[in-house]
Structures are given as structure tokens and as C-alpha cells.
Design goal:
Blueprint: H1 6-19, H2 24-27, E1 30-38, E2 44-45, H3 47-59, E3 63-74, E4 77-88, E5 91-104, E6 107-114, H4 117-132
Length: about 160
């Protein structure tokens, strides 16, 4: 039987996003009327629209890495602290991000991402420099645990 605690649902969602090439499994964990809020971007409402967003990112060749540093839950709300990477060919943009997920009945109903836009700008400049001078390219974060080894702080 699949673990349906909020933390387990979010861990599976993140695992699907960072390993899938079509994201269908990740989308399957979203509620039909999910609300996706990403700082500095318009809110996306509904599973179909989030799926279209994922497909658009794949179409332009976006590779995604999500390195979870910490995850905790209080009831249906799960918080993550991560380093995310968006990569297009040799351009690698790596930045710190926090996520909030509200999970009910095994589905994510609200997904919010918080980050510092200045950090994104710096990461983009560093990524652009890294395409020319590979030594400046951001390295993968160290001391990141696999999702099965994440620090758990929920009553599961």
C-alpha cells in the first residue's frame, strides 16, 4: 500500500518531477483544482494548466533537479527547503527555494514556491558565465539526502 501521508505525497511528487521526462506521474498527485503559486509569476489554477506548464518547460528542453535539504509537516501542510536547478544545455541556473504544499486525501491542493528574485538573477548570471568559463559553473549541492533519508518531522 502506498504511503499517503502528506510528507510522502510531496516526496513522491518531487521525485517524479526530478526524474520524469513527461511529468504525468507528478501531475497525477495534484488535485483537479490545484492552485500553483510561484513568486513573481502568475498563479496557475487547475491540474490541466499546471500540466501544460510542465509540458512547455519540457518542450524548450528544460531539465529540472530538486535537491531537498529539509522537509517537515504540520497536519496537511508540508514545507520543503531545497536547491533547485533549471538547466538548458550548458546553462545551469541553481538557486535556493522553499515550497509549501497543502495535501488532502493524497492530493496536493495548494503548491507555493518562495525564493529571492535577486538570488535567481545572480544564479542566472553565474550560469551564463559558466557556459563560457566552466570552472564558474554551479556545482551540485553536497550533503543532500535521498528522499527516503530525509529528516521527517511529521506524526506519520
Amino acid at each position: 500500500m502506498t504511503d499517503s501521508t502528506p510528507t510522502a505525497v510531496v516526496e513522491r511528487f518531487i521525485d517524479h518531477l526530478r526524474t520524469a521526462t513527461d511529468n504525468d506521474a507528478a501531475v497525477g498527485l495534484l488535485a483537479e483544482d490545484v492552485v500553483y503559486e510561484n513568486s513573481w509569476m502568475p498563479t496557475v489554477r487547475g491540474r490541466k494548466r499546471v500540466h501544460k506548464l510542465f509540458q512547455a518547460l519540457l518542450k524548450i528542453g528544460t531539465e529540472v533537479e530538486m535537491h531537498v535539504h529539509a522537509i517537515s509537516a504540520d497536519g496537511p501542510t508540508v514545507l520543503t527547503e531545497r536547491t533547485d536547478v533549471l538547466q538548458w544545455g550548458r546553462l545551469r541556473v541553481q538557486f535556493w527555494i522553499c515550497g509549501r504544499f497543502d495535501v488532502h486525501d493524497g492530493q496536493i491542493e495548494v503548491w507555493r514556491e518562495y525564493y529571492d528574485p535577486l538570488a535567481i538573477l545572480v544564479a542566472t548570471v553565474r550560469g551564463l558565465l559558466g557556459t563560457v568559463v566552466p570552472v564558474d559553473r554551479a556545482k551540485r549541492p553536497f550533503a543532500v539526502r535521498a528522499s527516503s533519508e530525509l529528516v521527517r518531522n511529521d506524526p506519520a
